[in-house]
Amino acid sequence: MKQFRDSMIALITETSANLPSDVRKAIADAVGQETADSRAGLAMSAITLNIDMAVDNVGPVCQDTGMPTFFVHTPKGVDQLAMKRDIEEAIVEATRTGKLRPNAVDSMSGKNSGNNLGCHVPVIHFEPWDRDEIEVKLILKGGGCENKNIQYSLPAEIPGQGRAARDIDGVRKCIAHAVYQAQGQGCSPGFIGVGVGGDRTSGFELAKKQLLRYVDDTNPDPELAGLEQEMLEKANTLNIGPMGFSGKSTLLGCKIGKSHRVPASFFVSVAYNCWAYRRLGVIIDPAEGSITEWQYRSDDEIKRMAQGEGIPLTGREVVLKAPISEETIRSLKVGDIVIVEGEMHTGRDAFHHYVMHHDLPEDLDISGGIIYHCGPVMLKNDDGEYRVVAAGPTTSIREEPYQADVIEKLGLRAVIGKGGMGPKTLAGLQKHGAVYLNAIGGAAQYYARSVEKVTGVDFLEEMGVPEAMWHLQVKAFPAIVTMDANGNSLHQQVDEESFAILEKIGKE
Ligand code: SF4
Question: Which catalytic reaction applies to this protein (predicted)?
């Protein structure tokens, strides 16, 4: 199959940069649900603009391109080993050109392989079938939403829902809780795949396979079809909304599959996918390896998604430029929109761990500064300078154990991320005079546009591209204050309010 490798490069590129037709339609419907100038409306506006920019730039919709996962159907007689080699070569090439972020990290040493290859990576599921063509489906699902996957073993006591038995009502309770627990951390509005039954491993696989279904299909099992519709409606009453800012669009798709199980077990497995729902498929000619058909693409696709300019600037925004004074920070309150100008530094898991145990180099004083929870996609220019290809925020809650201490140690005034942080950070913000700024999760192209220059990088060799500390010069970088220095947290508020609704749903 001479052309198979190139077909896989095309599939990876298109999946990374161009959302499927059914996902576009679901997101467009969600935009219509939110008031344009609400926080939710602004988030949706940035999301839709970002979707268009990704197509125009042929760049990743979101910088986190996840663990590429392929589902391959092959006819009899096809050389699967050769296909695997071609897929791996395509992955390396797509990483080199910035369509994929180098995401494969040795689990023990933390060393990034740099090319997205590693132990059991990429994930390739081969299955034979009796058709005379090859089908390859690819899903790119980032870590933020992957971390919100959840599995229940019934019977169980589900928070906010009470006792969940081994029946349809128990499944209902698990699904309601699964959406609640994700809040905005998985970059809502999201889509869920649910696997009922199987064992712990096959249950999650079944859940993930539900994400391969079309958003607008109907489950052939009438009982599950009814449950899908019911849970979609109920989830959207939780008022979690886009990015967890509160709003009407929390869940855009609910797909449920079932497997047989052993009598002793009853698992309900939920795979949560963010709005950046990147999955496409192709049919391949087994003789040449060329693409004969694209899946998840329809003739009536909504080609342009944006109706606005992302987060529109009114001139009333507070401009933050490092070094920022404590007085400026303490005057900010939840809901304010800020514009960051000048210098910021990226820092995420490895960086926070490092700072807890080491001092930064002496010439690296970032007091009064801003840390951006972001693992960007970077490419090196011919002149040796780096340029940002994609740079949206990553999930902040992972830094919860360290953030308050890092703020104090480095004298930070602002942290930018997405999904919010917990009580320890909130107390740290209040004590040390700092704020948490929520950028729009997944809006990687939208924020990359704000980066004027990459002025330096630290820890690149040790930590790899996503985890290194990048020094960025930004212009007109918008974000929303969601945790202020006066003890207020929008995330805490939305969590409490949605939990009260969850309890109500549990009693219906
Ligand atoms: S949109 Fe959010 S959850 Fe999805 S891959 Fe990007 S950062 Fe992760």
Answer: (S)-malate = fumarate + H2O
Residue 366 has pLDDT above 90, yes or no: yes
Kindly report the backbone phi and psi dihedral angles of residue 157, in degrees, each rounded to the nearest multiple of 5, phi listed first. -95, 115
* Ligand 1 lined by 242 (C-beta under 6 Å): no
Determine the atom of ligand 1 nearest the C-alpha atom of 143.
8
Instruction: Give the span between the Cα atoms of 96 and 122, in whole angstroms.
Output: 15
Q: What is the mean pLDDT of residues 412-441?
A: 97
Q: In angstroms, what CA-CA distances link 20 with 61, 195, 248, 342?
A: 12, 23, 23, 36
- Going by their DSSP bridges, the two strands 435-438 and 469-483 should be labelled as antiparallel
Q: What pLDDT does residue 296 have?
A: 98
Give the pLDDT mean for 123-143: 97
User: Chain-centre distance of CA 194, in angstroms?
Assistant: 18
Distance (Å) from CA 271 to ligand 1 centroid: 14
CA 255 to centroid of ligand 1, rounded, Å: 20
Distance in Å, CA 484 to ligand 1 centroid: 24
Nearest CA to ligand 1 atom 5: 142
What residue type is 443 in one-letter code?
Answer: A
Domain boundaries, the chain: 1-141+280-310, 143-275, 318-493
- Give CATH for domain 318-493: 3.20.130.10
Could you read off the pLDDT of 484-493 as tens digits, one per residue?
Answer: 999 999 999 9
Burial of 239 (0-12, 13-18, 19+ CB in 10 A): middle
| 251 CA distance to ligand 1 middle (Å) | 15
Predicted confidence band of residue 308 (pLDDT cuts 50, 70, 90): confident
Q: Is 182 in the pocket of ligand 1 (CB under 6 A)?
A: no
What order do you get walking across the sheet with 251-258 strand by strand? 150-153, 267-273, 190-196, 251-258
Across 30-55, average pLDDT:
95
Q: For the full predicted model, state whether its pTM sits above 0.85.
A: yes
In this prediction, residues 142-149 reach a mean pLDDT of 97
